[in-house]
Design goal:
The chain has 322 residues and is α/β, with parallel strands linked by helices. Helices cover 30% and strands 24% of the residues. The strands form 4 sheets. It has a 5-stranded mixed sheet, sandwiched between helices. Strands 8-13-12-11 form a 4-stranded mixed sheet, sandwiched between helices. Bound molecules: coenzyme A.
Length: 322
């Protein structure tokens, strides 16, 4: 099993941003046969935000994270943008984001669907090991561009948003990654995908099943690497596609919803943006303090899955995006 030893880090600043326009569940009943009650009961979602390009949303979340870190643009050495809804097929969206933030550094996209931001966190940690000091890891999506809001399965789930964190090397070693796991199984490409210029197509039941399995698998691997048990984790920040997926996985793993950072009701499924937005929200609500063991948990199309357990250092203020 790989390990990732040897470097301390802290979240030096976080940000979260949602576009203004909201599609509430009741609004959807105009374009499809559905109700607020059904969507809430079956998914936990109350509303989703739409509008804005991925780069615009990413720049706003990144700007907040940078400002809160107290760093200057010249201090950021790399931008990693996790997105599954890039502005263009080519080039990647990260260069435009770096430009918009006035940064002069490397910038690239990570495409691992809803697992992307946690993939980005592991990649960022690799750059810290190579000697970098400050990186910006953003998750941003304009999923409204690939969502059919008349479709009863996908149209109720997806929305736009962005979250960002400045990852900073910290040689005091107070904070660090304790365990991680990244995985993928391309045998399941067909259960959730969008063709070029298409919209998301989904086998909802199979995605549900595979997601629960992936969550169990990656959580177990990260806990094992960290030498921790479920009881040692103070807060889980999971990807949020449907609250019932999280509840089903928690039943098998033994986590409680009290220790889970949920934002889904206000945002819908924002793919790679969900976890960093939930991080910003958790810090805002002071659910994470010095020494907290936080499990970040991604799963999504691919299938891909990802998890990281962080020993949290610092005393950041978060953001309420809604
Ligand atoms: N509104 C109201 N009723 C709906 C509906 C909607 N949007 N969609 C389906 N229904 C009805 C169906 O007609 C069916 O009615 P019937 O029992 O009278 O025949 C019933 O609800 C059940 O339909 P089904 O398709 O089995 O729903 P489901 O329980 O599988 O829920 C999803 C659908 C999409 C909410 C669910 O499959 C899901 O969330 N899957 C995971 C998707 C996901 O997480 N994707 C992203 C991964 S990152």
């Amino acid at each position: 099993m790989p390990s990732l030893p040897g470097v301390g880090f802290r979240f030096a600043g976080v940000g979260a941003h949602l576009p203004e326009k909201v599609i509430a569940n009741d609004d959807l009943s105009d374009s499809m046969d559905t109700t607020d009650e059904w969507i809430r009961e079956r998914t936990g979602i109350g509303a989703r935000h739409v509008g804005g390009m991925t780069s615009e949303l990413a720049i706003e979340a990144g700007r907040q994270a940078l400002e809160r870190s107290g760093l200057a643009p010249a201090d950021i050495q790399q931008v990693i943008l996790a997105t599954t809804s890039p502005d263009f097929m080519c080039p990647g969206t990260a260069p435009a984001v770096a430009h918009g933030l006035g940064l002069d550094c490397g910038a690239f996209d990570v495409q691992a669907a809803c697992s992307g931001w946690v993939y980005g966190l592991v990649v960022a940690n690799g750059f810290l090991l190579q000697g970098m000091d400050n990186l910006l890891v953003i998750g941003a999506e304009s999923l409204d561009r690939i969502t059919d809001y008349t479709a009863r399965d996908t149209g109720i789930l997806f929305g736009n948003g962005a979250g960002a964190a400045v990852i900073q090397r910290d040689d005091s070693d107070a904070g660090r990654i304790l365990g991680w796991d990244l995985g993928a199984d391309g045998d399941y490409v067909h259960i959730l995908y969008s063709e070029h210029d298409g919209v998301l197509t989904m086998d909802g039941k199979e995605v549900f099943r595979q997601a629960v399995t992936a969550i169990q698998r990656t959580t177990t691997a990260s806990l094992e690497m960290a030498g921790l048990t479920v009881d040692d984790i103070d807060l889980v920040i999971p990807h949020q596609a449907n609250v019932r997926i999280v509840e089903a996985a928690w039943k098998r793993l033994g986590f409680s919803m009290d220790k889970t950072a949920m934002i889904l009701e206000h945002t819908g499924n924002t793919s790679a943006a969900t976890i960093p937005m939930a991080l910003a929200d958790s810090l805002y609500k002071e659910r994470i303090t010095e020494g907290s063991k936080v499990l970040f948990l991604g799963f999504g199309a691919g299938m891909t899955w990802s998890s990281v357990i962080v020993d949290y250092a610092g005393s950041l203020t978060g953001t309420a995006a809604w």
